[in-house]
Amino acid sequence: MKDLIAIINPKSGTNNHSCATALIDKVVDKSRFNVALRYVENPGDAKRFAQEAVTHGCYGVIAVGGDGTVNGAASGLVNSDVALAVVPCGSGNGLARHLHIPLKMENALKVVNQDLVDSFDYCTLNDVPFMCTCGMGFDAQVAYDFQLDGKRGFPTYVKTALEDYLKFKPQEYKIDIDGRSFTEKAFVIAFGNAAQYGNNGFIAPHASMQDGKVDMTVISPFHVLEVPIMGLSLFFKKIDLNHCVNIYRATTFRIHRFEPGPMHIDGDPVDMPCDVEVKCHPRGIKIFTPGLGENNL
């Protein structure tokens, strides 16, 4: 019998989690897995529960929630033998979409029964782990304002992005890539371990979670008339072809900005200092997958 801990966040995204406990009981194979339930009530709970699973030698953790809950659970599992199962119930679900994990709760739980576990890269922002993306600039400001809004979901995110675009001012950044430094004014600097933010918004369309590297997407300031083209290129996996975009790939990036401010880690806003380091940690997290590869190019 393999022991699992299910970490359930009843407040994630736009979904109702009242049926999560019943579905876990119904779907997960009781002849092979013993599941203990934990419920997220406070910040840090998901990571603490995941660390509990590591301490007790559990086989896996089932994270039921949005990207923040998944990131919290994953942060407690990095560099351990405990595998992460993702049951996506958020507004973006970036990791699930990247690994072709079903978005329907019942089907995502069936992935646990398949028991196909693989090792993937994770990244850190100043030693704070993330699974999919982190960033600074416009996307970080949107993440910050999106959190302040009482409503969740993709329409609210789009509304917030449009409002922020009208008032956002790009900054200059000093960028170091493997010892090579340059300064660039940027609208967005995004780092992709996975290919997308979530909602199939592909900010780093060629990023892989198994190549030992992280992709950095730098979007230069662009005219308001180019907003529709930029948006379409994001959702059609073509942002790397846009003339305002450069994508770099390395194991470590160091960024200096001239004032501290918000960044986002897997969509959740955080305050960060002027100097930040983004680093890839190869094959440091184990994840249950449906065995369909990665949703990248």
Automatic annotation (TrEMBL):
Cofactor: Mg(2+)
Domain DAGKc: 1-129
The entry's keywords: ATP-binding, Kinase, Lipid biosynthesis, Lipid metabolism, Magnesium, Metal-binding, Nucleotide-binding, Phospholipid biosynthesis, Phospholipid metabolism, Transferase
Organism: Sodaliphilus pleomorphus
InterPro entries according to UniProt: ATP-NAD_kinase_N, Diacylglycerol/lipid_kinase, Diacylglycerol_kinase_cat_dom, Lipid_Phosphate_FormReg, NAD/diacylglycerol_kinase_sf, YegS/DAGK_C
An annotated GO cellular component: plasma membrane
Gene3D superfamilies recorded: 2.60.200.40, Probable inorganic polyphosphate/atp-NAD kinase, domain 1
A molecular function GO annotation: kinase activity
GO process terms (BP): phospholipid biosynthetic process
Protein name (Swiss-Prot/TrEMBL): Diacylglycerol kinase family lipid kinase
SUPFAM superfamilies in UniProt: NAD kinase/diacylglycerol kinase-like
NCBIfam families noted in UniProt: YegS/Rv2252/BmrU family lipid kinase
Transmembrane segments: none
